[in-house]
Amino acid sequence: MTSLNNALLVIDMQQGFDDPYWGRRNNPQAEANGLRLLAHWRSNGWPVVIVRHDSIDPKSTLRPGQSGNDFKVGFAPLPGELLVSKCVNSALIGTPLESWLHDHNISAVTVFGITTDQCVSTTTRMASNLGFAATLVEDACACFGQITPDGRNLSADALHLAHITTLNTEFARVVSTDTLLGVEAVNALKSTSAQFPPGRIANASTLRSLISPPSEMVQHKILSRLDAHMRAFIALSPMVILSTYGVDGRADASPRGDPPGFVRVIDEQWLLIPERPGNRLADSLQNVIETGEIGLLFMVPGVKDTLRVNGQAWVTNDPGLLAPMAILGKVPQLAIAVKVGESFMHCARCTHRSNFWNSETWPAEGTLPSLARMLVDQLGMPGLNADELEVRLNEMYAKELY
User: Fold this and answer.
1) Domain for residue 358, yes or no?
2) Residues 177, 305 within the same domain
3) Nearest one of 275, 380, 278 to 318, comparing CA atoms
4) Angle between the 386-399 and 371-379 helix axes, to the nearest 10 degrees?
5) What is the mean pLDDT of residues 193-213?
6) CB contact at 8 A, 110 and 135
7) In the chain, helix, strand, coil percent, each to 5?
8) CA–CA separation, 333 vs 239, rounded Å?
9) Integer CA distances (angstroms), 292 to 84, 137, 173, in order
10) Which residue of 10, 128, 218, 265 has the smallest Cβ count within 10 Å?
11) 369 DSSP assignment
């Protein structure tokens, strides 16, 4: 059975379950593990079903129209994924899910979500009874403590364990996220005690025994200069990724963007990249000063091919070089000068695989939180408010781009 026949069922990953009303929850890592599973299924193009509980209880945090009905960050369906709305515990009652699975020749389901003891358990049991091979990813599920019929407190951990135990006994194969994703091999790769972890390719001859030689055309397409086609490409490019490394070997990739053609082509051998106001970390500039090397990846919107340029680099503050790159009367304080060592057009396999320029595959606006929200969560600074930070960022974008 291939995973094209195995649908990932994501059960009720909704904001309403963050309400303190529910009490203590187990498995605080459930969301992180769920996102790993989603990323794995999506990257392989396997079928994904997002289930949302649309409660009909007027007091429920999960009823439509309330913020609690919204998905947690990262769990909203992407284009091409099935969204199933339910108002009972099973995603297979009163929904098109069973018919959709049969129509798509899907014979197995992998399930995770909230809550283990109710909608996750009910959906898993019913899927098994309907003849689907079911897998439950237990550490991507969570539940809340309950009161037993005789008034005792049953903890979320105990309730979770009881349900995954009974499901594993008869209804499903219960596994962890790491087991399902084969993380044992990843852990071996990361092990500091393993000088040569399993699967490591340690030399170029071994690599070349696995990868056939490049074609004659590919070998001859690498130039030591910028030809007319490359110069036209750069003139249309509003975005370039700078790859550099420091004297300590630390690598860095940093985006640069401006109106198309902002990278100044001096001639077929030389480029100038203006340094606009930024976060002042100056990683790329420091690396260039230390090692004098740079790699560039140019992109043009809607064009699937890319242009790669590698060469020597210097940081300059020469007024004669900087003045022609002024925008809105603002002359950049610094620029990176690049002497081209090699340049070549890169074919579009990666953009075809990723559907990068196909807007129909792009996630809906709001699927990810704003930068302000992310920074507030990451920094944990007292008094830092996401709404206020959003205003400050928008003011910066409006007034401080140059």
Assistant:
1) no
2) no
3) 275
4) 130
5) 71
6) yes
7) 35, 25, 40
8) 20
9) 54, 49, 55
10) 218
11) P
Neighbours of 385 (CB within 10 A): 12
- Write the burial class of residue 241 (CB in 10 Å: 0-12 exposed, 13-18 middle, 19+ buried): middle
Tell me, what's the pLDDT at 199?
65
Please tell me whether residue 342 adopts helix, strand or coil conformation.
strand
Rg (CA), the chain: 27
H helix intervals, 222-363: 228-235, 283-291, 319-322, 349-354
pLDDT band at 357 (very low <50, low <70, confident <90, very high): very high
The number of domains in the chain is 3
> Which pLDDT belongs to residue 215?
84
CATH of the domain at 319: 2.30.110.10
Domain span at residue 307 reads: 220-351
Average per-residue pLDDT for the chain: 90
Domain-embedded: residue 284: yes
Residue 37 neighbours by CB distance under 10 Å: 19
Tens of pLDDT, residue by residue over 358-371, are 888 888 888 888 99
Q: What pTM was computed for the model?
A: 0.62
Q: Looking at the domain assignment, is residue 208 inside a domain?
A: no
CATH assignment at residue 82: 3.40.50.850
Q: Which of 315, 296, 310 is nearest to 254 (CA)?
A: 296
Q: How far apart are CA 126 and CA 365, in angstroms?
A: 34
pLDDT of residue 238: 95
What is d(CA 102, CA 99) in angstroms, rounded to the nearest whole number? 5
State the Cα–Cα distance between residues 205 and 213, nearest whole angstrom: 12
The count of other CB atoms within 10 Å of the CB of residue 9 is: 28
Per-residue pLDDT tens digits for 283-297: 999 999 999 999 999
**Residues 226, 340 within the same domain:** yes
> pLDDT tens, 311-326?
999 999 988 888 888 9
Q: Are 169 and 284 in the same domain?
A: no
- Token reading at 170: 């008869």
Residue 252 pLDDT > 60: yes
Is residue 203 situated within a structural domain? no
44 pLDDT band, cuts 50/70/90, is confident
